[in-house]
TrEMBL record:
Its cofactor is heme. GO terms for cellular component: endoplasmic reticulum membrane. InterPro entries: Cyt_P450 (IPR001128), Cyt_P450_E_grp-I (IPR002401), Cyt_P450_sf (IPR036396), Cytochrome_P450_fam2 (IPR050182). Its main location: endoplasmic reticulum. GO terms for biological process: organic acid metabolic process; xenobiotic metabolic process. Coiled coil: none annotated. The gene is LOC109686868. It is found in: Endoplasmic reticulum membrane; Microsome membrane. This is unspecific monooxygenase. It comes from Castor canadensis.
Amino acid sequence: MELLVVLVIGLSCLLLLSVWRQNSGRGKLPPGPTALPIIGNSLQIDFKNFSKSLTKFSNIYGPVFTIYLGMNPTVVLYGYEAVKEALINFGEKFSGRSNSATLEKINKGFGIVFCNGESWKEMRSFSLMTLRNMGIGKRSIEECVQEEACCLVEELRKINGSSCDPTFILECASCNVMSSIIFQNQFDYKDQSFLTLMEKLNEFIMILSSPWMQICNNFPALLDYLPGSHNTVVKNAIYIKSYIFEKVKEHQESLDVDNPRDFIDYFLIKIDEEKHNPQSKYNYESLVATLYDLFTAGTHTTSTTLRYALLLLMKYPHVTVKVKEEIDCVVGRHRIPCMQDRRNMPYTDAVLHEIQRHIDLCPTGLPRAVTSDIKFRNYLIPKSFYHEMLAKDYGPVFTLYLGMKPTVVLYGYEAVKEALIDHGEEFAGRGNFPVMDKLMKGL
């Protein structure tokens, strides 16, 4: 009976909070489907085909609309014109990154993909500059790709013309190119440590893109209490990051500041240059998180694009014939293709661009956040939703009373970093979640 009372009170509070949050945004945000309390539009969205659901909503509400993922309002820009207007005309204001509860737990605000503010700008600028620098030197990125392409061709020759699913081979090739750029290391496709790494990486990507993870990210408070595949995502991420950290330690022992070999060396040199700057964004946590983002994102996107390219070339054999004729004419059969050939291969270049346009590689793109309140197409998209508004009024550290229980909220990167880095031991405990505690005891 006591458990039932606690459960009813808890759900009632969540219900009232959800209704208040949805109503407080009406009249400001773009229109959208009616959201249910707590779960939002979750029942109206096909998480297995998210882009199809967005297309349906855009046909009803137009190219700018609002959906509720759980209790969180999300403004969707649908179609080329709306996205172009936002990113070209208001690029700076749409440059923020949205939070992902799972990835925040993994990278803790470091890295590139879901980092925000000055840290994101610094890491992005450094990564782009370093990758450009690595394109010119003793062992360029182009040479890494050429060498791995030869290995890939040899693996495909072993199939001897029989039917096969090349997915794993393409993933190995893409992973090896990223390994060369980041670690100065290439693996044999049968290397056991490499196979384990690929297994963890594939499982991580598969679960991360699943409907279950969409639900988990909408209700982050439940992540630490519910069993499920989201725990596997975190475990696999820890394995991959541990692997990366071991490579970083190996590089520290053999570092030559006058002859950087790969991305890790460049970053280690930058850490040393910035060691006397207390505001520096360059540290080992940031290095591992950045490598992790480059490694996971670069491997999956490249291998998926290659797989789709093969499927499309099989579907349109007349295009394949023309591409082959142009390759034979410009490159021939006795040397490896290089980037300089591109200017002489307009048809092949056009086919590659059309493949990238046609495939549904990342239908929704990375979720963004506006950096300040903005009026877009006569709708107000606020920077702040609820806790952000409270932080604006009361500062980065404030207290909320959830019933009779005071809860201290730390808002923003600097406040959270100071708490977890400078006072990690004191903040190591877990808060109480009475409803979940009672439910878990009953299992």
